[in-house]
Description:
- The structure holds 2 protein chains of 2 kinds.
- Chain A is mostly helical.
- Helices cover 66% and strands 0% of the residues of chain A.
- The radius of gyration of chain A is 24 Å and the shape is globular.
- Chain B is built from 8 helices and 2 strands, in the order αααααββααα.
- The longest helix of chain B has 37 residues, at 162-198.
- At the A-B interface, helix 1, helix 7, helix 8 and helix 9 of A face helix 2 and helix 7 of B.
Amino acid sequence: xxxxxxxxxxxxxxxxAHSAHVSYLKDGxxxxxWLFTVDHKRIGIMYLVMLTIFxxxxxALAGLVRTNLLSPTGLIMDNxxxxxxxxxxxxxxxxxxxxxxxxxxMGNFFVPIMIGAKDMAFxxxxxxxxxxxxxxxSFAVFALLTGGIxxxxxLYPPYSSRSSHSNVVPGVFGVFITGFSGIMTGLNIIxxxxxxxxPGMTWGRLPLFCWAMxxxxxxxxxxxxxxxxxxxxxxxxxxxNALGMPIGIFDPALDGDPLLFQHLFWFYSxxxxxxxxxxxxxxxxxxxxxFSRKNxxxxxxxxxxxxxxxxxxxxxxxxxxxxxxxxxxxxLLFSLLSMxxxxxxxxxxxxxxxxxxxxxxxxxxxxxxxxxxxVLFTVGGLTGIPLATLGSDLHLHDTYFxxxxxxxxxxGGMVLGYLGALHYWWPxxxxxxxxxxxxxxxxxxxxxxxxxxxxPQFWLGYHGMPRRYPNYPAEFQYLNVLSTAxxxxxxxxxxxxxxxxxxxxxxGKKAGPNPWGATGLEWVAESPPITHNxxxxxxxxxxxxxxxxxxxxxxEKADVR
Amino acid sequence: xxxxxxxxxxxxxxxxxxxxxxxxxxxMFLATEVLFFGGVFLAYTVYRIWYPxxxxxxxxxxxVLVAGINTVLLLTSxxxxxxxxxxxxxxxxxxxxxxxxITGILGAGFMCFKAYEYNQDYEEGLVPFCKNFGKELVHxxxxxxxxxxxxxxxxxxxxxxxxRIRLFMTFYFIMTGIHGLHIIIGxxxxxxxxxxxxxxxxxxxxxxxxxxxSLYWHLVDAIWLFLMPLLYLAGPHHGLHF
Lengths: 561, 242
């Protein structure tokens, strides 16, 4: 220990000659300086580029699905193609966009800056996670392009292993590999938050986004391996069928148990919903305080409710299987446990509402996204209650009610959080401001588009339209057309958002270090930050949301506008 | 200027922070490994409860002597890698290299025995992915006429469902296969450490690489301690032989 203390004295005069004052964007211009980078900020940007592409692909596939549903008999494709299209939409959106989105982009870019570190704890592991993710994504895209998968993203055997003549094995292998990438990122974030915090950055002073990322990373670490083993068993079974030596790990005809796969699958895939929503919740905590110029209400409650959601999220997986044949008592227990998720979620919603109360609210784009999140997530959360209730789930299971519910949570919740984060931190990431007017229009269009798309689906589901069917009775047509119209609004909004964000590189005015007058540590750094984030290790003197004192975490004046 | 200067990576403030990060990182990784194997242990347990008779019959066909020898090899290798940490901390390069080499060789010995065992399983027609499954002529310990018969015939006589034996053997190959993959990765890591020690790169202040590798090695060892009774001791064996 004495050598360590002695060493601390030397720590401050490291790298005196390093190009410490160059922004991370200007620290090397070649393609190799990006592909071989270990800078967490560049890795975040690399994730951003790929995620934007996959989001576009997933969105276009959703467009195909919605277009086909314009007609009760399927407008543009045959039933088999329809199956493959909605499966591709699910796989791309979940595994290639939603799960890596905020952890990959904002987690990588901002967690080290927000805790005052120079980089992630394991920079090489960090860039490896991007490459691993790209390899997995390549397998998945290969599977989807060369024949597709027709099982739905849930890949239930024995259909997927025995009957489906589609590209199950390469697709599953791709998902299997992307899982390792998530584990790497999660591990990095947890170790970074434990070991790399700047002096004074106690756990009680961590930004709520970091708390949410911590809870997310815990889920990624503990749930993803279970999916990996479930997918391994599925690949073995599917492969054995292809070889003509069938083994029935999950096939009841060969004494296997299909429910076992569902248990293992949902043990990951239900917590995965919280991998998607928790970072967005953390983001909303940042946005609501900043744009209402108020300290967060109930910091401790909001922070621990993230961990609470992560823990309870592990105990509710079987509510996806109420009608699959689990025992009555198991269903009863899982129904009750599912209700418990409402408690930490409600804690968050009420604390956010209390934060807004009598705040000086300004409706800039990030705030519109955050408020949209608040409304849409609440709708998505509340419609989860009839699904967690055994009696009503019998009626609503596998209908469009479920589709609407989880799109409200994942898309209305997660995507709005992601867009809010992108708009909030865009000036920090690239040093430029986007158009204030068009961004507000874009944010409002997104919210309107979501509500128009998914609200009719509650009616459709309640009246019995099953999910994943290409055909429906003619009296459902007007609701389906309305839903597709909502999709068009969203598509236009996304085009608009991409247009003004890209335009900001060329025409946007330069953003100072702190364009929003926010208090977090990331706003003390330059915009865009230098390669080592801070000129000197920052000393943290207060909590992350001292808006009443107008003070950043290093004790400087936050809003000088 | 202490020797720590060289061991410290640029983004850490001091060497203890760096060591702590590396240790915590490995512990976190081990947690994911436990969950990874936990999933397949769960699946195994479900079917063991459902099909106890087949599980006992199939387990009895495995080579418990080889598995026992392998257990001894792995446990010994865990001991030697723990001594290697001490050697690294003391800067005793010679002892470090010897201990790492012994650990790696013990691991390689484990894999050799495993390969022998897999080959034996194939020859007896116990590999569920192969066309000869259950069709090879083998000795039936319950049949005192000493005549050779196929497993399929023996199972039929005892009222055992062959697809459930296939299920057990599938779990056997998946579990030992994934475990074997971990052993191979571990051997690679240990020989990389040996190379670094050989080049003189593992000085006393850089012992933590040996420590985290040993953590990984202990976990792989511990998993074997669960695999061994679950797979090999689930049913009665008829004598110990190669």
